[in-house]
Amino acid sequence: MSNLTFIDLFAGCGGFSEGFYKEGFRSLVHVDFDEAACLTLRERMKYYNYSQKEIDKAVICGDLTKEDVNLQIDKVLEDKQIDVLVGGPPCQSFSSVGRAQDPNAMANDPRNYLFLNYINILEKYKPKVFVFENVSGLLTAKPNGNFIFPQIIEEMSRFYDVCDDKKTILLNSVHYGVPQIRKRVIIIGVRKDLNFTSKDVYESVKKEYFSPEMEKKGEIGSLLKYRTVKDAILDLPKILPGEGQEQISFKPSEVNTYVNQIRQENFDLLYNHEARNHNSEDRKRYKILSENEWQLKDLAEVNPDLVHHDPKHFGNRYTVQKYNSPGTTVVAHLYKDGNLFIHPDSKQERTFTVREAARIQSFPDDFIFKGSRTNQFKQVGNAVPPLMAQQIAKAIKKFI
Asked: Catalytic center at which residues (predicted)?
């Protein structure tokens, strides 16, 4: 058993943690203020054989801006040695979508400064390495008229060697075997008294798969082909709107290398594979869109009666996931509706289930999402893909 330790702030359901568990790190603290996400974190610690006492101490369900939560963290960590701090403060205020929908471009959103709570913990416990995750919009966000990215780098650089090269720190999950295009800012910091640098760690985070973008440019080198939506979900039971259950017995009839990686051979259950109910109009819409791999504007020309939104403005409002490509970025908005994730099989006339979204995010099949289905979608959309987290954990482990 490895004696390397980590803590996870703004942990969500634990996508980051999952990658570190897989590399043998031991969890000391997870903090999140969403109760359903905390239930999921506890469930997963049980899976990894933590005692009930350890789980009760380690999962702190509360707001990191509050003093009592910080005191709770102090109590659990006391004089323990922390190797790695991971976490991604909520990012709605840095996302371009969030900024576009807010009249003040989210300038007054308190979430802009949650990174300071992360930095407080970082400077208090001084782990050897930290990993900070956020949306790519962080690089251009100007909440108070000034770019926030240089401010974050400056704060982090007091005790840590940090890389601020935008090309280096923008990682795409598709390169790490995740069947999804998801570009995220990953800032890795290494404590200045150690004999390696953040650049060393980035160079060890191995890209194994080429992206569709690289394929177009003919820059695939010796990399493997990206994984697709088909690789991720084709083996799952076919269900119609309103069908499916939270838990069923299930053995895939055939498995590919991806399913092999996220599903243990002797495992015979399937969780969270329950489809939303859709009205007859939606079902028609999904059926035609997926049959033809159309966008809303194509549908508007043929069946204008099925289109309530202006396709010029809502062109991407309805997106059919394509079997032969990686999935588009799984977003937390899924909890409101699944229109960005219409199932490619037109016979199923529906949007994705929580399990299908989790497959696109690279969660193992034995990972159980707790809480209401609405909240489960939110947990999946907010998570760091475990396979990408695992590559980062592997690289860090090499040096510490």
From this structure: 91
State how far the alpha carbon of 392 is from the alpha carbons of 86, 171, 192, 211, in Å: 11, 11, 19, 18
Asked whether residue 221 carries a pLDDT value surpassing 70, the answer given is yes
Q: Using CA atoms, how far apart are residues 72 and 381, in angstroms rounded to an integer?
A: 28
| pTM of the complete model | 0.93
Active-site annotation holds for 91: yes
How far is it, in rounded angstroms, from Cα 222 to Cα 243? 43
The encoded tokens of residue 227 equal: 């994984």
The domain made up of 5-214+383-399 is a member of CATH 3.40.50.150:
yes
Residues 195/399, Cβ–Cβ less than 8 Å: no
Q: What is the DSSP secondary structure assignment for residue 30, as one 8-state letter?
A: E
- Per-domain boundaries in the chain: 5-214+383-399, 229-377
Integer distance in angstroms from the first to the last C-alpha of the chain? 15
Q: What are 282's two structure tokens? A: 């939606």
Thinking of the domain 229-377, which architecture would CATH place it in? Alpha-Beta Complex (3.90)
| Catalytic-role residue among 13, 38, 91, 163 | 91
What does the pLDDT average to over 109-118? 72
What CA–CA distance (Å, rounded) separates 94 from 113? 11
Most distant pair of Cα atoms in the chain: their distance: 67
